[in-house]
Amino acid sequence: MKKLILSLILLSGLMISCSDKEVTNNKNKKDEMQEMNLTQEWDKVFPQSDKVDHKKVTFKNRYGITLAADMYTPKGKEGKLSAITVCGPFGAVKEQSSGLYAQAMAEKGFLTIAFDPSFTGESSGEPRYMASPDINTEDFCAAVDFLSNLDNVDAEKIGIIGICGWGGLALSAAAVDTRIKATVSSTMYDMSRINAKGYFDSEDSEDKRYEKRKSISEQRTKDFKTGSYLRGGGVVDPLPDNAPQFVKDYHAYYKTERGYHSRSLNSNEGWNVIGCQSFLNFNLLDYASEIRNAVLVIHGEKAHSRYMGETAYSLLKGNNKELVIVPDATHCDLYDNMQKIPFDKIESFFNTYLK
After folding, report:
1. Which of 89, 95, 23, 85 has the alpha carbon at shortest distance from 59?
2. Cα-flanking dihedrals φ and ψ of residue 283, to 5°?
3. Hey, which of 112, 166, 210, 226 would disulfide with 162, CB 3.0 to 4.6 Å?
4. Strand 182-186 relative to strand 153-163: parallel, antiparallel, unpaired?
5. Which helix (H) or strand (E) holds 300?
6. Tens-place pLDDT, residues 294-342
7. Under a CB-based contact definition with an 8 Å cutoff, are residues 136 and 144 in contact?
8. CA distance 186 to 177
9. What pTM does this model have?
10. Are 268 and 231 in contact (CB under 8 A)?
11. Where does residue 24 rank: exposed (0-12), middle (13-18), buried (19+ CB within 10 A)?
């Protein structure tokens, strides 16, 4: 009898402790959002929709970095919803293209979040403006953690969208996280390939990779000495007369009212020079052939990056993989051109595989 009473007392204490902990966790989450000083007013580069509810949310990845996100919930939808998390382009923030995609998909009935990657935007992580094939893949997985635990989300119906450089990272996440049931890679960059081989594979040699590694290594010594990190510069401004068309396209998005944002790396001073060092040694697509869940690769017919999306698609196996080439579309058309981005196709893809 004494053991029973003691057990009940311990159980009661545990219940009180858990209740207190829940209150504390909620308080900590509110305090955390205040400490991060998240912008509450609408500061996106696209207009706000009256068909969805919007709010800021935060969650941690497995490295303890707190990610900031915008959540878009379709108005009038009840019950457990299919959910999508969106990120990209590489060096952009959630107030740009990823937020546009997230809001558009919420209008179609999905609960969505667009998040800032670790070390960028409103998300935490020090030092700032670093990138990592591992941590950035983890960012997608952490977003799935968050969505899986929402009361109004069906944890068996979660998909992801990666734009530009995050299109390759989305495939990396899909290869490692079996909770992801469907993946869209839009206007994809393979950041491993770009860093190791250059644009159009024009620097694909051991000697050129050695020179890159040497330059970054020397910059690390300088950064350590000065106690600060040299930034690489965002999209070039002003444009040189001989700039390639795709650089002009980037400028037209990131450096004009169309897409400029004060927190965007591409709109401002870019990544740290050493920020993408680890992409030189890691291939994001090593296990793309082992992705069992559905994948939709979307690219523009005239996109300079099209070869990367087509190569990625060639690695995929199974009858649930699809490549869509958008007629007459450039790389940046698929950032924000509502007449070119195939949202109806994306909707039907997710409706087919998130069920």
Report:
1. 85
2. -100, 110
3. 166
4. parallel
5. strand 294-300
6. 999 999 999 999 999 999 999 999 999 999 999 999 999 999 999 999 9
7. no
8. 19
9. 0.91
10. no
11. exposed
